[in-house]
Amino acid sequence: MEELVREEVALPSAPGEDEHPALALANSAVALPGGHTADLLGTPAQAEQWLTRRDLAPEGTGLAEVCTTQLRSLREQVRSLLASRVAGQPALPAAIAAINDAMTRVPTAPLLLWDQKTGPYRATPHPTTAIVEHALAVIAADAADLLTSPDAARLTACASPPCNRFLLKHGRRQWCSTRCGDRARAARAYARRTATE
């Protein structure tokens, strides 16, 4: 049974995360050794911090749980698309629909509203919702760009179980971090030692 770890996990960015917020979003739920899982979007405060660090929301946005749930939902759809691409399998239609919906939901301008006393005006109906929808649109557009760009050929999953992070390969590197690479090499060395005993 997986145990959820809610505090921030001190992992370096996987290769490609700094250039692709969609990759960073997909990697915001991390499988750790010992059956633990860290969710970097576990609370509204953590989700806001995650968005702020990536310049997708200003500090003090005041994210609500409903906004955090939307972000986690998009994460699952992006993970599904990346996993399909890595496995060479067709993507789930629901994942494609979620990405397209996030990209097209954001109004390109403040909406026209009408106040009974003052008349017409333009405004964003709910500023926090607009911030979140904009962040979701940016991430969804990046996911679409990543999956259709030459970088898609370099997309892979970390080769060190139980890690579930994605990365863009550089050379022969198969791991998202030095920690995962060290763990994989140690497991291979242990397997060789026990096979010769």
TrEMBL record:
Recall the taxonomic lineage recorded for the source organism. Bacteria, Bacillati, Actinomycetota, Actinomycetes, Kitasatosporales
* Name of one Pfam family that matches: zf-CGNR
Q: Which Gene3D superfamilies match?
A: Jann2411-like domain
Q: What is this protein called?
A: ABATE domain-containing protein
Annotated Zinc finger CGNR domain residues: 154-193
SUPFAM superfamilies according to UniProt: Jann2411-like
Q: Which InterPro entries does the record cross-reference, listed alphabetically? A: ABATE, ABATE_dom_sf, Znf_CGNR
